[in-house]
Specification:
Length: 285
């Protein structure tokens, strides 16, 4: 899996929820630019399997990964049927990242560890193998489960310090593929505010808050979207600034980093293309 993903991928809301024709063209260009993976979100549910199919059809070699498929929104038997019907060459280009969502969304049924164990059991029984899966693991117990049952981990909204913790937890032989938000721009104040606007969407999610606290940020910093926290979570500035952040992740043990370009321009794939093109140069070590 690590060799298939390469060093860098693109994580994109636009490629799932933007105009399908524009997304298909953009995905094809991402493939040609040499990125190893396209990661699409799945937290809201919907027909994510059809969206994976659409992106597989638009590309030739890039892996299509979910970042992540919400286990409360998709029946494992349905996923298993889809998986078994995929042509072998396309199946090799799919990585299913799984997540447990958040307590305030799920409600009283939210028992993340046991729910994920059960879901993995049912997926495996439906024919989806562990090496085709990874988990959106943040805390120590979910990291441990990922190492036991899947290819590895895909943490979201994390720092290189968390990447180091994840590598220690899963060991040397499992995938560590963090998402890294990127706000490119020559005006550092504007880029920081663009990153902060993206952060504010997530600041009240309990799983993320707990993880940021484990990383040393306090409630006041989290509530305010403090500069130090936003700068720790997002790579802000030029492509060279992003390179420094990538170096920190790889030094901490990442195998692959997927870059989310924060454009502030909604779900238009064409708005993100200039950033994806500029960041493609960072694939070389």
């Amino acid at each position: 899996m690590t060799s298939r993903l390469g060093r860098l991928g693109i994580w994109s809301l636009e490629l799932r929820f933007g105009d399908p024709a524009s997304a298909a063209r953009a995905a094809g260009e991402i493939d040609e630019l040499g990125y190893g993976a396209i990661w699409i979100p799945g937290g809201v549910g919907g027909d994510i399997l059809a969206d994976i199919d659409r992106l597989l059809a638009a590309t030739r070699s890039v892996t299509i990964a979910t970042g992540v498929l919400n286990i409360w929104k998709h029946d494992p038997a349905e996923i298993g049927t889809w998986w078994k019907n995929l042509p072998a060459d396309r199946r090799e280009r799919v990585l299913l990242g799984l997540g447990v969502s958040h307590a305030h969304v799920v409600g009283q049924a939210f028992k993340p560890l046991s729910a994920m164990r059960d879901y993995l059991d049912r997926l495996n029984a439906a024919g989806v193998p562990g090496p085709a899966l990874c988990l959106a693991a943040l805390g120590p117990r979910m990291l441990e489960l990922a190492a036991e049952r899947t290819a590895g981990v895909h943490p979201y909204l994390v720092t290189p310090e968390h990447t180091s913790q994840a590598r220690s937890a899963v060991g040397p032989d499992h995938l560590v593929a963090p998402e890294q938000g990127v706000a490119l721009g020559t005006d550092p104040v504007e880029a920081l505010e663009r990153a902060r606007a993206a952060y504010l969407h997530y600041k009240d999610y309990p799983n993320y808050r707990a993880n940021w606290q484990r990383l040393g940020f306090d409630e006041d910093q989290i509530d305010a979207g403090a500069d130090d926290l936003v700068k720790a979570l997002f790579a802000i500035g030029t492509a060279q600034d992003v390179r420094h952040r990538l170096e920190a992740h790889f030094h901490a043990g990442a195998d692959h980093v997927c870059l989310q370009a924060v454009t502030g321009q909604g779900l238009d794939p064409t708005a993100a293309l200039p950033a994806w093109r500029e960041l493609a140069e960072l694939q070389t070590a």
